[in-house]
Give the backbone structure.
Amino acid sequence: MDAPAKGDPGPTRPGAEPATDLETLLTSATRALDVEGDLQTGRRLFDAAYRIAERTGDAPAMAVAALGFGGLWVHEHRTVAGSTLLRSRLRHALSLLPHDSPLTVRLRIRLAGETDYGAGEHATILATLEELGPTADRVARAEALSLAHHCVLGPDHGAARRKLSVDLVAESFRTARRSDLLMGLLWQTVDLFLDGDPHAERCLAELRDLLAQQDHLAVGFVVSAIEVMLAIRAGRLDQAEALARACAERGAAAGDVDATVWLEGQLLTIRWYQGRVDELLPSLGDLVHSPKLSPVDNHGLAALAVAAAVAGDRRKAVGALATLYGRDLADLPRSSSWLVTMNGIVEAAHLLGDVETSARAYELLSPFGHLPMTGSLAVACFGSVQHALGVASSTTGDLDRAVEHFYSAVRHNLALAHWPAVIASRRRLAQALARRAGPEDDAAARGELAAAAEEALAATTPEAAGRPGDPEEESPGTEATCARQGRKWRIGLGRRSTLVEHSIGMFHLAVLIANPRQEIRAVDLVAGLTALEGAVGTGALSQQPTLDPAAVDEYRHRVAGLRAEIDDLESRDEHEDAAGARREHDWLVTQLTGAAGLGGRLRRFAEGDERARIAVGKAIRRALQRITDADPLIGEHLRHTVHTGVRCSYWPT
């Protein structure tokens, strides 16, 4: 027998009627859960009621209390102990009731939903729903429809869940329970957002109107979370962050276990589009192991892989990605977070140069190119699946396919009115066009970058945020400048400029800014070779080489040839010959570095490109933070236009 819990009224007083106290408790619990949407109070009262019913041997009351203890959603009890307690109560009550009792049917439905959801399945709950005929208990049928809907939120079952939500609204008029109507409309709203339907906000407005008449904490929490997602889509990221924190407070007041998890997911989305996802690395490490996460939710691990890769922690990123991949990436459960998780996998694989994972992810995502990457109950959105398909194609080297997907992503994101995603897709499209380097690709790339800059400016001007401002301060140029001034660097953007202390990261930024739209290897940034290479234009920082021009040209030509030779030898696993070629390459780099006057001694990297990528990425991120601290607008521009990795670049308009 369970020990008394907090809120348990305790043993019945001598002379009192146990059923009266129990009935009052169940009535209060039902009102808290169904009418007020107060999940926390409902759980506490139903828990107390179950304990009394168990002591008095009241099997029907035990069943009602066990069902109410389960809550409004599937899998509200996330911990092993909580989930086990719920199921044991449901089974115990089930064992005490007649086979044909309506409560028996409801218990079977709840058990089916809990079991299916925990396993990432839906067959049992759908079969149980199918067994309910037209004359079945109305409450049982309404509960079955709602719980079944919660189990089919993945991208494969759009049509099935839409039917479930429509049927639930119809059933609500038979049960006369307002909570059934609210849940039916909520599920319809969620379905429309998951499908990218242009009329989703109409349904949301109807739901808001109902809540305005009488609040429901649990449903209102979900509505407020959707509003955070819409603020992010509109590009109002600062406002979205404030809304996300207010939403989390509302969720905590409702007693919803997802309050903290959704806040983390929404902050992740905001930081993603701010170019600051690496800042979340510590909190993501905690989130991955949080018992509050659903067992079928892997978005935290995917985000951890991306954040670690961006932060230069390759070991952690590779480990997280390998954990997600498992035996086969196809084994990941197709839950409501699957598309968001796959987006993170694609981004992490791109940062790590993981062609195999990218190819498999592309294959799995291809059937869903028409959908937005929307997570959970439409509480976060990362834009069109077409964007992820484009990134995966870029990683595998299929640039024609990447360009096609990014063009589609721009169109889809425009239709979603997801402006941060539009900007991100335009920038990725410009990069893919520049890499493909077709006859008209350069002009097309510049056009996409110009459009992205215009859209980014519209989203960040004071007018867009509803604040007055100085017009001269609101029109920064589209291309930054960087010049050394003694021990500092002056960074300019249009009419704005700021001074930042010298650092290695500032040195790397100066090279990138001096050579816009050029991919420069991180190892060359470390070596200083980029100042001499003809491929990066006329932005050399040193104009006084110590070698004569003919020798410099000869060295350049030989270095380029050695790079190709090294790549070829390593691809054929001829590592000994490759090592000899690399030694000659490194010696020539040293000579050219000295000739350029970029620091004399060359910093040596035993692991070549990988260690250079980590060092350059960290140095540039530190420099970007200093710039942002000095001038947030210039810092924001550079965060969106400077890209680091094995190859680094600055992509202004």
Observations:
- The longest strand covers residues 480-485.
- The longest helix spans residues 549-571.
